[in-house]
Amino acid sequence: MFERFTKDARAVVLGAVEHAERGGADSVDDGHLLLALLDREASRGSFALAALGAAGRRDAIEEALSGARRRGGLSQADTDALAGLGIDVAAIVSRVEEAHGEGALADGGKSGPRKAGRGRLGRVPFSREGKDVLEKSLRAATARRDRRIGDEHILLALTVRPGFVAEVLADHGVTHASVDRVLGADPAAAAG
Predict the structure, then answer these.
(1) How many CA atoms lie within 13 A of 173 on its CB side?
(2) Helix count (H) and strand count (E) of the chain?
(3) What does the pLDDT look like over 36-54, one tens digit per residue?
(4) InterPro entries given for it (predicted)?
(5) What is the domain class of 2-72+119-190 according to CATH?
(6) Of the candidates 154, 166, 159, which has an alpha carbon nearest to the alpha carbon of residue 1?
(7) Element containing residue 138 per DSSP (H, E)
(8) Which of 53, 74, 125, 126 could form a disulfide with 78 if both were Cys (CB 3.0 to 4.6 A apart)?
């Protein structure tokens, strides 16, 4: 599938791997893909992010992603729902971090040094979430009748995949509908 990616989409994928490696993550996830998209300039995906005002809010987006990772992937909506049941997620995170170190929930409880050479060519492998975004980007390209997968398709995939990344994007005005509108999508293709 990688051969169908444009230069910009390939740069996002490689950038996501770099973000994961720098952060010491065990795998590349959808959050890493979003950070790599925010790094891009002069591409269709970066145009959409800039047009929606998200490019100028990178620090806030990065902080929101970090907070969700720290909560073990719980979105703010999940945290609020649990608070409504009397469960204080912040207190639980604090207790876990007291016992197991800061960020203990951030990597799914797999703290410790990463084993070298886990992925192909010694790279960090993609998580289920990361792979799902790449598969959804193929579907987005197909729905838009595009022959190649661009970084805009990765952005569209991030907006439809349930989870904290889509929630963070939506909180910053980046939804599937808004990205479609900015890119001038065919409404019939957006339904796919």
Answers:
(1) 14
(2) 11, 0
(3) 999 999 999 999 999 999 9
(4) Clp_N_dom_sf, Clp_R_N
(5) mainly alpha
(6) 154
(7) helix 128-143
(8) 74
DSSP notation for 1-22: -GGGB-HHHHHHHHHHHHHHHH
| CB under 8 A, 24+ apart: contacts of 156-160 | 156/180, 157/133, 158/30, 158/33, 158/34, 158/37, 158/133, 160/136
| Long-range contacts of residues 108-112, Cβ cutoff 8 Å, at least 24 apart | 108/26, 108/72, 108/73, 110/26
DSSP state of 34: H
Cα within 13 Å of Cα(35), Cβ side = 23
Q: Write out pLDDT tens, residues 68-90.
A: 888 887 877 788 888 899 998 88
What are the residue ranges spanned by the domains of the chain?
A: 2-72+119-190
Measured on CA atoms in the order 19, 111, 131, 118, is the torsion positive or negative?
A: positive
**What secondary structure letter does DSSP report for 28?**
B
Instruction: Give CA 96 to chain center in angstroms.
Output: 25
Tell whether the model's pLDDT for residue 103 goes beyond 80. Answer: no
The amino acid present at 26, given as its one-letter code, is: D
Angle at 160 between CA 184 and CA 190, to 5 degrees: 35
